[in-house]
What does this fold into?
Amino acid sequence: MARIFFWKTKVEKFFTTREVQQIKLLPSLRMIFFIFGIFYAWPDERMEKSSLWWYRLKGVLFRMFFIYLCTATQVAYNFTVTTREELFEGMFILLTQLVLILKMEFFYKNVFKIQKLIRRLEGELYQPRTAEEDYPLERARKKTTTFWVLYFIFSDGLVTKWLIISCIYTIMLVPAWPVVDHTAPYGVFLMVLGYQFVAMFLNASFNISWDSLVAALLALTNAHLHRLQIQLMKVGHPQLRGSSDDKRLATVETIPDQKNSKDDVYNELLRCIVFHQEITGFLRDVLKLFSGPMLLQLYCSVFILCITEFRLLTDVNTTTETIRALTYLICLIIQVVQYCYFGNEVNYMSQKVHQATAFMNYPAMDIRTRKLLIAFQQLTAKGIHCSAKKIFTIELSMATFVTIIKTSYSYLAVLRSMTD
It folds into this structure.
């Protein structure tokens, strides 16, 4: 059984150093691709049509067994509850599973578009030219890895802790199997408990990977905007430039008479503008592709946070239940805050890019270069605002995160007044 569902997927290329192309993937991205491979959601781009069909079929069977069956039992359980505590406990779990299913189906449908976005990061424009430009990418690696590790610890660690508690107290991991409880034969109980643990562990892993993928793409966008800032501040300052023989940045067709220093300044500025257009185009494609699921996640997070806070304040009576609810609350907060944090970083760095245009060597420019600079300054003055747009619009910023927390608390106050 384990070999059928977890046999070796072609993800080794994400763990090897590609010396020819000198591409550095984020550590979190490598783990994300590995988890997607377990779900049969990351096919090889060179896979034949017949092999791809079989690969997709295994993905359908995998999620039917571990995702849909688990959700169906949760729905059945919610129709059998008799108390408010049981209803709220079942509802926040069911809502999380339904959002996950929508995100998962979206991913399976758009996996080739997502792979195309990842391949785009392998272009020459995205490769650092100097050691100074490696710094933003290193920061992105550290931040995304930190978020991924914290998310993984609090999410899959929570599921593991639930398993230990369930074994000690002979209770189900989640109340989703009405006909199986501590009175059932111990073998049946262990079998269902094991299934619940594997299903929830995989569900949490995919949820972590999906959210972390979006966060990583935003973090990389911010890193490349930082690289652009560094490049802009060197325009017209030959003494600040890196080695002149570094040709990794995609070239723009130069004008005649390259010996003219003013022409060199013009070409430097033109390269930066091309890079800026590529970064903004990449970000626009990322937001356009992921806006729908992100918007759904942010809206649902308000209600899930509200229900979790309500249970934490009213229905939790023991220390174990308190820790369980509090850990789940932290998972939700990490899930939401990484969207808002990295979106906010992109907004902030876009302003720094505009400010960097003031550090160019303006006196060394000719008239046409100055005109090009003024047009570019007008473009960058607008800034970049990361937003999830689909019927409604939510800006990805820390202000939005604060609004989500405030809104969930407002709903909590209304819910408590209705139940008192």
Observations:
- The two ends are 50 Å apart (CA to CA).
- The first strand starts at residue 387 and ends at 390.
- The chain has one domain: 26-239+259-418.
